[in-house]
Amino acid sequence: MPSENQLRWQEIEMYAFIHYSLNTYTDQEWGFGNEDLSLFNPSDLDCRQWARVCKQSGMKGIIFTAKHHCGFCMWPSKYTEYSVKNTPWKGGKGDVVRELADACKKEGLKFAVYLSPWDRNHKDYGKPEYVTYFRNQLRELLTEYGDIFEVWFDGANGGDGWYGGANERRQITKDYYGWPETFKMIRELQPQCVIWSDAGGDRGDLRWVGTEAGYVGETNWSLVPREGRLTHQLLHYGAEDGELWVAGETNTSIRPGWFYHETENEHVKSLSKLMDTYYKSVGRNSCLLLNFPIAPNGRIHPTDSLRGIAFKRMIDEVFKENLIEKAKITRCRGGDGLPVATTISFKHPTLFNRFLAEEDITQGQRVKKFSLEALVDGKWQPLRDMLVEDGKDGLTTIGHRRIICFPTVRATQLRFTISDAKAEPIIKKLGLYLAPEITADIADAGEKKSSGLHIFFSSPKQMLIDWEQEQTFTTFRYLPPQNTRDGLITHYTLWASSDWTHWTKLASGEFSNVVNNPIWQTIKFPATKARIIKFDADRLAEGDRMSYGDIDIE
Ligand code: FUL
Question: Do 206 and 8 form a contact (C-beta atoms < 8 A)?
């Protein structure tokens, strides 16, 4: 059974993530921990604008990156010098966490914090002293900023970092952070707060769904086993016989990356993509945590805010009229009490394309399988969830809310049959809707495709691209392979030459977060005239042969 806190959380349904840090000024997804504090000086930082945009986009709260992996604190923590207090912004007197907490209060939004356990700045990271530091910071956030509805403990740990100048790779053990003690402190300081934690052995209240692409499995149990690591399978689908209630939170960004990058201004998710994300998260027994990055001026970019607002309008439009209210409903039960068929009958043939059902999850999650059929021209015709990719009908779990999308039918009846359940199903709401077609969609800007390149491999970790004639280059883009870690490049060096003998190093570094979010990676460098580009894979996520989904050079 869910706890009171988990039930309250499930009702929130949609809330925003906000990623903003020094990364915003270095065009990075992960800062190394030595980024210059003087870079943080937004001209127009406006937390009220963030809160208003989020509210108008249907978000009921905001989770803010108080500290990302680079260790930079967006509030003037007592425990570090690496924070807003040593930046030029507001002469070091500013506090972004405070401004946002206040703005949320004014807009009637809930407020929450992301505090990265991995800290690439702190000299003691990896030692017990750091865990004390981490808890001290968490205590500041949980005691000085009012009610916090969720804490988000990112499991990312790439190992290497600046670490007070040590500049090395540090590995941590499974028990390093001592989560049980930290969780106890959270329960004491903020009894109504839910704890998000990912695949580690310590269970919070909420789990990651195993992808940052914005969808959870069509089968989604809010249950997981008490012990052991949460595999991708468990994160994505939960476990029918799990002993613990740990609901899935679907997190994704409105853009490819979590932080703002100017190069992604053309790649803000389209309205239909956002609706697809809604159906595959809120419509699959999950909540949607949708990220809005902050641009360097300190505001949400207009493209993102307009798209967010259009998203909310479309949700309202789809669900404005529940056609069931005009219909007659009859129920019939099978012999064992578990299978139940509900028939919804209309006086006249009626058009619809969305079905919604909600279980009363205060009594647990019970439904294991159901079917949907429509009576069209006197014939019963099965309806399938068209958003399920694996060819099955997808009609399995329901939970807090399940939405099934199918092509528009014109029918006089709809039959909803629960054919298998763990206990007597308790359905508290049914809905039937006619969603409008999204006609004037602002499509996802097409991914750039490479053309006319001659690609050779001189070793399994070195790619050469030859144009036969000198060109001027400024940008190299790498699309990691999709759906596999094998050959995925995490660290690279890029070279240029015109004669195969003299090589100029153009750039080298890390593709951060590519394992969980394998989006296009853009490397910009000063304009260089060359004939050949050499791309070295310095480190791979797995395997020993570099691979790519696509390459693009300008
Ligand atoms: C990931 C992080 O590594 C990303 O940078 C981002 O914060 C995302 C929400 O979680 O694990």
Answer: no
**CA-CA-CA-CA torsion for 194, 196, 199, 204, nearest 10 degrees?**
-20
99 lines ligand 1 (CB under 6 A): no
Domains and CATH numbers, the chain: 4-318 (3.20.20.80), 323-433 (2.60.120.260), 454-553 (2.60.120.260)
3-state secondary structure of 15: strand
Q: Is the CB of 196 under 6 A from ligand 1?
A: no
3-state secondary structure of 525: strand
Is ligand 1 within 6 A of the CB of residue 29? yes
Q: Which atom of ligand 1 is nearest to the CA of 116?
A: 7
Check residue 445 and give its pLDDT: 38
Length of the chain: 554
Report the nearest atom of ligand 1 relative to the CA of 198.
11
User: Which among 463, 282, 500 has a CA at the least distance from the CA of 290?
Assistant: 282
- Closest protein CA for atom 11 of ligand 1: 156
**What tens digit of pLDDT does each residue of 137-178 get?**
999 999 999 999 999 999 889 899 999 999 999 999 989 999
The alpha carbon of 116 and the centre of ligand 1 are apart by a number of angstroms equal to 9
Q: How far is residue 546 from each of residues 188, 462, 488, 536, measured CA to CA in Å?
A: 48, 8, 6, 9
Task: Provide the percentage of residues in the chain whose pLDDT is more than 70.
Answer: 96
| Phi, psi (degrees; rounded to nearest 5) at 33 | 115, -5
